[in-house]
Amino acid sequence: MSAGRSRGACRRCAIDRLILWNIDLTLLDVGRVSRDAYADAFRRVTGRALAALPQLAGRSDSEIFFESLYLNDVPTGENEAADTELLARYCWELEAAFSLRQGELLQQGRLLPGARAAVTAAAALPGVVQTVLTGTIKPNAGVKLRAFGLDQYLDLEIGGYGSDAYPRGSQLMMARCLAGEKYGSPIGEDAAVYIADTVRDVEAAEIGGARCIAVATGRSTVAELRDAGADLVLTDLSDTHQVITSIDKLTRVPAGR
Description:
Elements: H1 5-12, E1 17-21, E2 28-29, H2 31-46, H3 61-71, H4 80-99, H5 102-108, E3 110-111, H6 115-123, E4 128-132, H7 138-147, H8 168-183, E5 192-196, H9 199-208, E6 211-215, H10 222-228, E7 232-234, H11 240-251
Parallel strand pairs: 1-4, 1-5, 5-6, 6-7
Antiparallel strand pairs: 2-3
Helix pairs in contact: 2-4, 6-11, 8-9
């Protein structure tokens, strides 16, 4: 686990609440760098230029790759094993391509309003551990977070990533289990909250057993997020007091339960 307030919180009190953050368009925007890395990795794996890129919102890197194959008329493998090998090659190339662009993250990317303050303040809540549930492959998720100094507040060992072979709802359930095993206290459905920006994320929270705070900083509108069933919809994370109060309220288990 990274150093910082989250680790300090582990020493001070029992961990019984879990906050999961989506990364892209929830905490930060590095879309231009990501698209360049996608194009580079795609070309290296397929030998073709990435002429058409699918919708990225709410999708994992593995989903984006296979949809890109279809949109660019590139055949997939002959069977499941071949597809698995093809995806593994792509993930390796994507990690390499993104690593070469680390210096561009701060130049071409940005933290979204209130993101740093929200993550920092959430780390100080009693009994809380924070992680990520993201479509980004794990190595690149770490690079993005480190570039903006957010990794120190998050336990990346228990998160869910775009390189995992499970839907995001299943990854959320696994993250709850991993957190419970690591910190010695089960994380119930009323003690976990997912903070993200797409309708698909709201659906994943419902499937994975977590409350959901949706922020309209991505492609989904406030109305769409509300209709999808988010517990709370915010325009962004700029009101730190509202964000932290909402997290605390949604994850605090009533006494006697």
